[in-house]
Specification:
Largest sheet: 7 strands, mixed
Number of domains: 1
Structural class: alpha/beta
CATH superfamily: Vaccinia Virus protein VP39
CATH architecture: 3-Layer(aba) Sandwich
Number of strands: 7
Distance between the termini: 30 Å
CATH topology: Rossmann fold
Radius of gyration: 17 Å
Shape: globular
Length: 227
């Protein structure tokens, strides 16, 4: 990919286009799934200014972030946990992480590097580790993603399922890996006093229903596990 393309992700890009929505409800969900591990290592790809990294660290997770933007890395809020790096060339060793997130990243990857990116995520993820991806859904009812010219790799949901399974992942499409009991207080300032073990099972059908609704509105959530 050319230097000119990388330079699109400058100060103006982050100030005009990027807004952060807390991911703590997803972080807590992964913590629950990996609750038998003494320590959890997480990689946030396309971490921007490191806001997800900060939230994961606050939850006791050893989290790192990578981004191709020098502006983002130089201005990250947790500098010692953020470094330059590409999804297609991840600067960490094999089997390093228990979880990887790439929120709104894969659509920015050159189509020729798609398989390399998926292979790299598989490489650095531990066996049984989890991957969270979000990306625009071209089959949605709205098409706002077309106005961002850095969206050069928009694919239908089935494509991502085929590609991830080809590289050794088990895949759930249009599935939100979240504890809704933690997401609802974020939005409504209401506390739900339900144990995580019960909430996990009660919310499972809703993860598919809400995931489907989001995919119809444009945002496709993909949850995968390294088999």
């Amino acid at each position: 990919m050319s230097d000119k393309f990388y330079k699109e992700y400058d100060e103006r890009y982050y100030k005009e286009r990027i807004s952060h929505v807390s991911k703590k409800h997803m972080i807590k969900f992964i913590k629950f799934l990996l609750r038998n591990k003494y320590t959890i290592k997480w990689l946030d790809i396309g971490c921007g200014l490191g806001l997800v990294v900060k939230e994961a660290l606050e939850e006791g997770i050893n989290c790192y972030g990578i981004d191709i933007s020098e502006y983002a890395v130089n201005n990250a809020i947790i500098k010692d946990h953020v470094k330059l790096g590409s999804i297609a060339d991840i600067p960490f060793g094999d089997n390093t992480f228990d979880a990887i997130s790439a929120f709104d990243v894969i659509e920015h990857v050159h189509p020729k590097e798609t398989e390399k990116a998926i292979s790299e995520m598989y490489r650095v993820l531990k066996n049984g580790g989890f991957l969270i991806l979000t990306t625009p859904n071209p089959c949605s009812l709205t098409k706002n993603w077309i106005y961002d010219l850095t969206h050069i790799n928009i694919r239908p949901p089935k494509y991502w399922k085929i590609m991830l399974e080809k590289h050794g992942f088990g895949v759930k499409l249009a599935y939100i890996p979240s504890f809704l009991k933690y997401y609802i207080p974020q939005k409504l300032s209401v506390t739900l006093l339900i144990p995580d073990s019960i909430s996990f099972w009660l919310e499972e059908p809703l993860r598919y229903i809400i995931g489907w609704l989001y995919s119809r509105k444009e945002r496709l959530y993909i949850f995968a596990k390294k088999l």
